[in-house]
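Workshop exercise sheet. Pairs work together: one partner reads the sequence aloud, the other fills in the structure field after running the prediction. Swap roles for the next sheet.
Pair: D.N. / O.F.
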Amino acid sequence: MKKVLRALVILGFAALLGVSTEAQSPGKIKVLSDSPLQSALVPIAEVFRRDSGHQVEFVFGTSPVVHKKVADGETGDVLIIQPGFVAELLKSGKVAPGEHPVIGRVGFGLAARADAPARDITTVEAFRHVVLNADALIFSNLASGNYFATVLERLNIAELVKAKVVRLPPAEVFERVNRGKGNDIGVGTIPLINVTKGLRLIGPLPAEVQGYIVYVAAPMSGAPSPEAGRAFIAFLRSPAAKSMFAANGVEPGTAK
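Structure field:
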């Protein structure tokens, strides 16, 4: 009985002081990030948790979606998206000023159903051949898709494949490839292709036409756990994190 009374007294003092026992639990940070980094960030966060004791909770989405969430008032500790969106949120006071380091970049590749025959796209000529002979070319209406559209223009085949082009929201691109025939080809970031069930990577775009999406990490203004958030950003630049990024198709990169 005495123990129960003592616990009630402690809780009573906490209530009088406006302290939440849940809010006092240490070690949680919230990170809002672009989806192609998910396969790398999840294992990186687990190592960070073991080393620091800080648990990482993620919210994943495309950079435009994450940008809108933050602009509309969603809070967190760390933001990992494309530099242009971070610059906009810095102007509106949603991102803390200071260094916003580049943590990596992802390249683009072609995807097919896992049961489709292997194809070679290591050269520009081989790439052209595969694209011209596809039944459908499925790519997004955002960054990766916009870039691929410029590749088709550069290779002077945009008009030749116009009838087979399907532009969709990012979340629907690989689903559409999986539903189609083996000669339907999807376009997307290499890490996302590698982790999508039912698909396989035909290959990265040839070096002559390859492009990249760069990502930076930024502390958010009014972060609930600012020190832990900055520690996570620092960890993302460590040799251990870089190794896990590389293993999941995320290359080192510099801001453009």
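Discussion prompt: The longest helix spans residues 2-16. What would you look at next?
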